[in-house]
Amino acid sequence: MGWEALGRWGEDAVRIEPLTGGVANDVWSVRVDGHLAVGRLGTRSDADLAWETALLRHLDRAGLTVPVPIPTSDGRLFADGLVVMKYLEGGPPETPADWRRVAATLRELHRLTRGWPQRPGWRSSTDLLHADTGTRIDLGAMPPESVVRCRAAWARLAGRETCVVHGNPTNPSNVRMTADRVALIDWDESHVDVPDLDLVLPDNAAGLDDGAHDVAAQASAAWEAAVCWKDDYAVSRLAQVRAV
């Protein structure tokens, strides 16, 4: 149906302009019921979008600042691949102190989602020790030696408690900060995994000790190599994963 679905949010709902940063989705600023909002149109399944929108509502009720889904006129949280969310003001993190605030927000996310069910169709990093595919990951498309390296990095996370991870918090455009709050946006890569994958932040803002930081950094590099394989960024990230 495409952007015609925006009419489900009211006769006056309109697109305004495209927003940068989206890769897998078409993202625009929109106006709904006279208020600025963000519309994201993609190809995710209804089960996938139900998981994400339920997560965002849970986090909002728990006190985190997130792009809360705005219901359609008949009360649905998405329609025909389109999600409309609250627009959040703010700027990106710029200083070590800013990134420490981001780390604290991520840790609260992790605390609030212990035991959360996996996003439909996704795999965690440790699931991929035995599985070959999950959403955008296809280990069969990677050279066998590269898969061995990635799995060796993920094996160091085995047995740890899992929760929801944001999936891409190191991208400054995914954070909207003001003086009194930190907002995480773009939850398209969120899924259940080991929390330290979210905590490889600039200047080690999460304060991981040397051993924990090494484990997390290696696992994170392996994850991004597998997710993006095989563009230039994926190749560069794989180069950071130690050979076995």
From TrEMBL:
Domain Aminoglycoside phosphotransferase span(s) in chain numbering: 16-200
Alphabetical list of Pfam families matching this protein: APH (PF01636)
SUPFAM superfamilies: Protein kinase-like (PK-like)
Membrane-spanning ranges: none
UniProt-listed InterPro entries: Aminoglycoside_PTrfase (IPR002575), Kinase-like_dom_sf (IPR011009)
Name of this chain's protein: Aminoglycoside phosphotransferase domain-containing protein
